[in-house]
Amino acid sequence: MKKLALTTALALTLGISATAQAHPNHAGYATTKADTVWISGTGDCWQHGFWTADNKTVECGAEAAAPAPAPAPAPAPKMMMMDAEEKHIVYFDFDSSAVTDVSAIVNYVGSLSKLTSIDLKGYTDRIGSNAYNDALSQRRVEAVDAALANAGIDTNKIATHSFGETNPVKECTNAGASLKSCLAENRRVEVTINGQKQMKH
């Protein structure tokens, strides 16, 4: 592109101030009062006598800087099998072995890539004889075992244990109906599920 050198006299004739000519954004070029490079009738940028090649701008013929390369994509996370364990508790009404809901257990087992084992431990409260409570805790673990089997879980992975009124989680000194209510947390089957899950690494 043809570049035209502009003398001081011509700059004054065009009404271009010395301050505008020296503006750092347009060093080496004559500028207008609006701080834009003066363009000739042929489309050339007006250069003053102090112009050097280092002053060349994109609007006056310099090549635009190449865009920065896009960052490399992050590597996809690797999936690996990891051991997983979760515990649940199934509670029972007084002197009952009726199972209410095992959906949380079934859903968790369904989330596993591999089921290793399910351990069931049955308990009762302290009301009643030891022999009766031993049998009741056994009925409770068998009831949970059957409910899981009905939900499609492999019973070969399930181990059952009954402990009667041993290992209470709550002690109470109430009497009558109040005592039964207080001891509710002891009427339970503890469920421990072990397996493997696919997890990001």
From TrEMBL:
Keywords linked to the UniProt accession: Cell outer membrane, Membrane, Signal
InterPro entries linked to this entry: Bact_OuterMem_StrucFunc, OMP_bac, OmpA-like, OmpA-like_sf
A Gene Ontology term for the protein's cellular component: cell outer membrane
Pfam families membership: OmpA
Domain OmpA-like: 79-197
SUPFAM superfamilies (UniProt xref): OmpA-like
Domain of life according to the entry: Bacteria
Listed PROSITE patterns: OMPA_2
Localization in the cell: Cell outer membrane
Name the record gives this protein: OmpA family protein
Natural source organism: Amphritea balenae
